[in-house]
């Protein structure tokens, strides 16, 4: 079994006339939390969308658990136990929190068929999901919607969780709750790929890191090594962690 669960090799992505990714090489080690960092417009979100098949790679190869998924459709990729939380969260505002969760629970046709033990675990991670179980999701705050988006992604066991900027726009207390939740998810054995702008979030959670610029991965290594190297931080990110 490969140490890397997900590998991108020379991946290019075109969106219309625009060439966004220019040969992305990225590895996501099995059982680790990998941070994908970079300035705005570096290509991070496009990389996630290309992995999920929402945008098709025009060149290169994407493998998951040893299987080439480059040309698969998004539903086929999701069926491999890969969950994706986009930056927009994708919440169905007119449905209740319970209905949003049920939609993601492929093995259940009604709420009573959802795994009760897993739900209780999710409620321990995100108490707001339980508190607002029967409320319309559109009435939740931004932080509560983000909790619901992640909770929905893990309502069934996933081998890989991909999340785009989970702390964006959240209050510090909610960010700390997110950090705790992702730490527990990682401890449970889930492999995680996170795009993040909150550097404190990245330092506390990241095992490995890849930094993107101009549609390429320009640095990869351990999160700790990047956190300890102020010169590298300024060179790659224009800031100090």
Q: Write down the overall geometry.
A: globular
The biggest beta sheet, please?
6 strands, mixed
Instruction: Provide the CATH architecture of the domain at 1-81 and 161-166 and 192-241.
Output: 3-Layer(aba) Sandwich
Stretches where pLDDT falls below 50 for ≥5 residues? Answer: none
| Topology, number of strands | 10
What percentage of amino acids are in beta strands? 25-35%
Strand order of the largest sheet: 6-7-8-3-9-10
GO biological process, one term: L-amino acid transport
GO molecular function, one term: ATP binding
InterPro entries: AAA+_ATPase, ABC_transporter-like_ATP-bd, ABC_transporter-like_CS, BCAA_Transport_ATP-bd_LivF, P-loop_NTPase
Domain ABC transporter: 6-239
Structure description:
By secondary structure, the chain is an alpha/beta fold. The protein has a domain at 1-81 and 161-166 and 192-241: P-loop containing nucleotide triphosphate hydrolases (Rossmann fold). It has ten helices and ten strands. It has helices at residues 44-51, 74-78, 97-104, 116-125, 127-131, 142-153, 172-187, 199-205, 223-228, 230-237, and strands spanning 4-15, 18-29, 33-38, 57-64, 67-68, 82-85, 160-164, 191-195, 208-213, 216-222. The strands form two sheets. The chain has a six-stranded mixed sheet, sandwiched between helices. Strands 2-1-4-5 form a four-stranded antiparallel sheet, with helices on one face. β1 and β2 form a beta hairpin. α3 runs parallel beside α6. The longest helix has 16 residues, at 172-187. The two termini are 34 Å apart. The mean pLDDT is 92.
